[in-house]
């Protein structure tokens, strides 16, 4: 698909560039625009997230202090540490404590798919607008588009559920449940209280956009299928006695 697109763009005299923006008003073109926009939303809501979780630490002879661990995409939480509030004041019992878990693979998979889908949508829109006559005349284009659309729909299904599971674990690893696991908080005279964690509503939205992308691409499979000779063959088979 990409090779054919590059050949078309590099040889406009051979293929013939015919700009036709009316294709964007048809279901196939309009859905592609939505897929392009929603891919941007996935990239922005997940890839641009920054947050922090905060504890209140009380030590003997020391005023209460807050310690903060800042985390962000790609959510390698095991590299994010709470710095010591006052090691001497806590009798030297406090050591830097890291959060638990590395969720970078799930986050990378989700965001990388959004980036690749964004590029594919741009390429597809170029073909739809400038080379629609070639797309309609050569059945290899719709068949290739159908195969890629089916693959992308499946990848959205997998990546969204993988990321949703990772997001649940991220909330656990940055929430109040982390306090009992911090050894420094168990030292005599030391008390830790969970204060807050940044709202992850925007990450919940990223999961929603992942599901919407999956639905859009599933519908896109049907729209592309109707442009292939497979659809006409299926109609002939179903109409035959």
Automatic annotation (TrEMBL):
Residues in the signal sequence: 1-16
Residues that span the membrane, as ranges: 109-131, 143-164, 202-225
InterPro entries cross-referenced by the UniProt entry: Marvel, Synaptophysin/porin
Membrane topology reported for the UniProt record: Multi-pass membrane protein
Main location: membrane
Localization per record: Membrane
GO cellular component: synaptic vesicle membrane
Keywords linked to the UniProt accession: Glycoprotein, Membrane, Signal, Transmembrane, Transmembrane helix
All residue ranges annotated as the MARVEL domain in the record: 23-229
Family membership noted in the UniProt record: Belongs to the synaptophysin/synaptobrevin family.
Listed name of the protein: SYPL1 protein
């Amino acid at each position: 698909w990409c090779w054919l697109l590059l050949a078309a763009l590099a040889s406009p005299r051979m293929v013939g560039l015919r700009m036709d923006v009316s294709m964007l008003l048809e279901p196939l073109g309009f859905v592609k625009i939505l897929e392009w926009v929603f891919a941007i939303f996935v990239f922005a809501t997940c890839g641009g997230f920054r947050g922090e979780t905060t504890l209140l630490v009380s030590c003997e002879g020391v005023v209460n202090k807050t310690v903060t661990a800042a985390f962000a995409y790609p959510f390698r939480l095991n590299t994010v540490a709470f710095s010591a509030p006052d090691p001497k004041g806590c009798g030297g019992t406090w050591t830097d404590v890291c959060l638990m878990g590395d969720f970078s693979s799930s986050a990378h998979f989700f965001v990388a798919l959004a980036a690749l889908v964004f590029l594919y949508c741009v390429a597809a829109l170029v073909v739809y607008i400038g080379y629609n006559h070639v797309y309609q005349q050569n059945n290899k284009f719709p068949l290739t588009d159908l195969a890629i659309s089916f693959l992308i729909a499946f990848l959205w299904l997998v990546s969204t559920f993988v990321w949703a599971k990772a997001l649940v674990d991220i909330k656990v690893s940055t929430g109040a449940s982390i306090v009992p696991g911090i050894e420094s908080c168990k030292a005599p005279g030391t008390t830790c209280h969970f204060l807050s964690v940044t709202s992850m509503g925007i990450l919940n939205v990223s999961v929603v956009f992942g599901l919407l992308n999956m639905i859009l691409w599933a519908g896109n499979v049907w729209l592309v299928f109707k442009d292939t000779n497979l659809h006409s063959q299926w109609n002939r088979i179903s109409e035959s006695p």
